[in-house]
């Protein structure tokens, strides 16, 4: 299948859980919300309908209760501690959670894109989406203190425009300042300064 070009998207991936994806997304939203309408997207990729939790154990039910190939839900509560609520509280105009079977990521993202105005900046958390799209920029957060790399990250880490290693939490403002976003003639252009 062909890659979908989404030049208005900053895609954030990570090599493991609790690595700072949402923290980075929140700071990017705060920086850019006065310049562009910002839409945030969090993607949970489900391997198959088997109902097994990808993280092991009983899980939270996300993987077991999906009936369709994908499901897009808009977050409406900015007072919760859920990642999607934090993105909304940071100032995103809209926040969506796309739960998607891995084999249907193309259909899921195409459906999402029909909800997004052309002039909106998209801040997205996902590794797997990079197998289906070419974003404006792709940032990978890598924890070198933990050798275990999620399979989804291993599949796309070589496509990252920048890899941020280790001391991420202490340098978030520095990372955010390195990212430049411009809109010219309805086309987004992104650049990461070194």
From TrEMBL:
This is Molybdopterin-guanine dinucleotide biosynthesis adapter protein.
């Amino acid at each position: 299948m062909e890659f979908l070009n989404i030049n208005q998207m900053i895609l954030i991936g990570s090599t493991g859980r609790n690595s700072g994806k949402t923290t980075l997304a929140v700071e990017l939203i705060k920086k850019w919300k006065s310049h562009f309408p910002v839409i945030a997207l969090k993607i949970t990729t489900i391997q198959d309908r088997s109902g097994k939790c990808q993280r092991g154990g009983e899980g939270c039910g996300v993987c077991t209760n999906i009936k369709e190939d994908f499901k897009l839900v808009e977050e409406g509560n900015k007072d919760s501690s859920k990642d999607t609520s934090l993105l909304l509280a940071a100032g995103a105009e809209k926040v969506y959670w796309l739960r998607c079977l891995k084999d249907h990521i193309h259909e899921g993202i195409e459906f999402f894109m029909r909800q997004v105005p052309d002039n909106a900046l998209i801040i997205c958390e996902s590794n797997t989406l990079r197998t289906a799209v070419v974003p404006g920029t792709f940032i990978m957060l890598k924890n070198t203190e933990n050798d275990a790399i999620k399979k989804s990250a291993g599949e796309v880490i070589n496509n990252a425009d920048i890899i941020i290693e280790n001391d991420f939490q202490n340098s978030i403002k520095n990372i955010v300042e390195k990212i430049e976003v411009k809109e010219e003639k309805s086309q987004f252009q992104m650049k990461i300064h070194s």
